[in-house]
Amino acid sequence: MVKQGRPQRGMVRILLGILMVLLGVWALEYRMQWDITQNGRNSLSQASVDLLQKLDGPVQVTAYATAQDPQLGDVRGMIRNFIAVYQRIKPDLTLDFIDPAEQPQLAHEAGVKLNGELVVRYHQRSARLTAINEQAFTNTLLRLARTHEKRLLALSGHGERKLDGIAQRDLGDFGSRLEAIGFNSEAFNFADEADIPRDTSVLLIASPQIDLLEGEIDQLLDYLARGGNLLWLADVGALHGLLPLAERLGIVFTPGVIVDPQAKRLRAPPGFALGTLYGRHAVTENFDYLTVFPFARQLILEHNREWFGSVLVEAAPQGWVETGEISDEVSFDADSDVAGPVSVAVALSRIVDDREQRVIVVGNGHFLANSHLGNGGNLDFGINMLNWLAGDEALIAIQPSATVDSRLVLSEWALTVMVGVFLVALPLAFLASGILVGWYRKRR
């Protein structure tokens, strides 16, 4: 057997030392992590990552938190761990701590009232944040990233869906999300103001229920002529005086309701259509979510030299436009129905006074209503539309990573079996085995 000489052992030690140093340097330079939680809940979503990469300057976060909280414990540690996830993507995002108990004057000047409250600053703009989660923090960055506040006016006075309404048909939940990302929304009634304000970023017409007056139509056409941006949600049925607006845009609304057999196979009610085909547009770029349009109508873009138009969403590729009555037994009639896929939403744009004017028309208002906003990617699609209309297509919609439901729900029979096994059968089995072992030992 050949023994290893001292020079060889010394060389091995040197090589091991060099390897350890290299591993140490590599560990300092590169960090790797794996998120094994359901749905990657402890990692940033791709939407948050994209937003951080688009912010072109430093972000300063000041946390007004004590070292320890009687109820929450190590508040600073929680904040530090939360911000560290963002700092790995954006190194120039800094975090500073101020103890509100030791420096109450600074906390008062910042308007801070809660222990653990954050103040986020970006490009001389600031916002306070009380909730520490990805959705709240990224929405705060979205608000600060906007160059100026966006004014969204919602036409009212004709039974339209309300952006602050709580009824099932209203858009209150959607309006709250828009406010969270920097839109200033308010109702507009021609009875209160004769003209639509010129600082309006987007005008919303959400499914009026009664006819608009002729003078109101003239004001809408004037708003369109001077380059105003518009989002029009048109449900099935009459246009209530808005036909001149449709003609000006070059859009034809066909009668009937879109029927989608695929939605029926997913146990959706009759008249629900799934948006699965998306056009090439800034609104739908990298958008691969399913959208759900209840009782939607078809839109057809006519050839128009004035506007550049594109289809945003097509639904029901295996369905059709049903012109008859909707029921569970509805079927395609080649003589009267229109075969799918069916266009549901279209985008229009043109240049007015050296500025791009943007319009989106959707043959459905239900998909953004409180009762249906949570279906599929409806919320993301709605926010993307408003961002594009307001000229902020670089900003994206952020949704929190939802944890898969991990609750264990047991039937009464299963609970009875578990009680019988663990509380009765197993103790009796252990008792019987003990008696048997004792009896066996006595016999020996």
UniProtKB/TrEMBL annotation:
Keywords associated with the record: Membrane, Transmembrane, Transmembrane helix
Keyword Membrane: yes
Domain called ABC-type uncharacterised transport system: residue spans: 150-372
SUPFAM superfamilies according to UniProt: Class I glutamine amidotransferase-like (SSF52317)
Record Pfam families: ABC_transp_aux, DUF7088
Domain of life (superkingdom): Bacteria
InterPro entries per the UniProt record, alphabetical: ABC_transp_unknown, Class_I_gatase-like, DUF7088
Keyword Ubl conjugation in annotation: no
Segments passing through the bilayer: 413-440
Domain DUF7088: 38-110
The protein's name in its UniProt record: ABC-type uncharacterized transport system involved in gliding motility, auxiliary component
Source organism phylogeny: Bacteria, Pseudomonadati, Pseudomonadota, Betaproteobacteria, Nitrosomonadales
